[in-house]
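Can anyone check this?
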Amino acid sequence: DKYSALGDIYNASLNYASYLKEDSLNKEVLYKYAESSRLLNDYTKAKETYSKLYKRDRGISFPECIFWLAMVQKNLGEYEEAKQLFEKYNKRFKKKGTYTAIKSQLEVEACDWAIKSLKNPSNLRIYHLDSMVNSSFSEFAPVEKDCTLYFSSSKEELKKNKKSLPHTSVYQVDLSHNQLVPAD
């Protein structure tokens, strides 16, 4: 808990896992371990741990367990299972007005969309534009027209002056030749 309070989720997770080797029935530590796994984006471990807790607790002491289990299942692409849990959570908490109660209603729709999209895939092509576009700086607001991609980027270094504003430029990439040039 000390590591978690300091924001050191990784070491908190290691300690929760170690504790669970000695006492695997402790629901509070199971929940904390599941949470830390989720926050570390280890969705497989989070799902496994939330599932163990849910089987033991049934959402009585840890009602948010149902919601977070559904979220990690959704993140793992298990949309049908996630939708069922979101619906279960909605039945129990729809009148609460909390963030998770409202979010779970939206997540049912998101799962429906994902299920439908998987059945009817689009012809959308996704391709990596290498470091021309995907750099260590922020690239945003892309627009494609006539085989040219226009986007904004903060590629140039900022001055150390506290009064200076962040500097961005507009760039263009000729998608047919993969050439990056500043836009006119």
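Reply from J.R.: I decoded it. Strands lie at 139-145, 148-153, 169-174, 179-182.
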